[in-house]
Request: fold
Amino acid sequence: MIGSCRRMKSPSRIPKTRRPLALALGSLLAAGCSPEEEDFPLPDVVWEGTSVRVRMEDPSIEVCGGSFEGLDRHVELVREALLLEGDGVVEYSIGDEDFVDAGCDGSPLGCTKATSGNVFTSLPLHQHEIVHAVRALDPELEYRSSAFEEGLATLFGSDDLDNDIRPLEVMDILTASHVGGREEYFRAGHAMAILRDRHGAAAFRRFDVSSASMDEDQAFIEAFGESKEQFAAAAEGEPVCEQSQWWVPLLECEGEPIVADPATDDLVLRGDLSCAAEDVRGPRGGWMWTFRHFRLDRSTSTIDYQINMPEDAMLEIVGCYGGCPGRFAYIGGRYDVGSILNGLPTLEPGEYFLRMSRPTTEGAGDFEVVLQ
Ligand SMILES: [Zn+2]
Reply:
């Protein structure tokens, strides 16, 4: 069994200029923890959803209003997306660095126990670990390769890697006994994105099942109809992109999208980006965020839009579907979005999500984006 974990570098950066494909929510460092089971005591329950039981070692840790609902929903969405079995509740324990360090056998910022799926983390919404947890809770999933485990957690976790692009070296990552570190997460996640595009979620399920009873290389052929070498050769012929173009935004693009008001033709996305608001998530690396899923039925104008947002906020608009290299992704601050150089370009018809993020400071967080 492979333990899996991830940890965060605490200082977060505000991008100085447009970083079209990257996010400002803090960057991650890998942690090479391999936590074995499992008598570490769990703290008291502070919140219970359908699929997650949240526990906090220190109830005074800051949590934004929508984080736990986001966790709960993410569990269900990952199960659906990966066709997983099992309906066990994820035990999700939040604490400070010392607490997580103890729960994770030396990794201070987060891990998932390989057998129980218990999560120990310093983050109120740690989607990467949720992917590990629901896979651990699948009773039929007996074997887990490190490349699949970390790759899928990166693909369905969140887009929190930095915006460097690296050669995938697919064969090397698929045969690694332990995938760890930001660079390897990128390579494994991108490789899983290409594998999913080629074969769909059902093939991953076949691999989960067949790898329990046969050699991993053989199970790969059974599940995907090609060898690892064949897949690696094909994948290395594909374009390589930043994570924003290949990760799967399950939460962000869920449900019915907001559409333009038929009377005015304006598409209005508004909210209050304050930590207490019930649709605000985080914090993570000192940032909080909220998002809106919307659909455009015609192209937007680059002239006729209005954007009001806090001075310290970042706005991102990212396509829900499509992948590398065509998926739309934009990021900008209040003074970027309307500028000629770094402004928001025309958006073609399709589904997108808007994410607004800012440091978890006090003060009014009202925002309104009107697309025409
Ligand atoms: Zn992981």
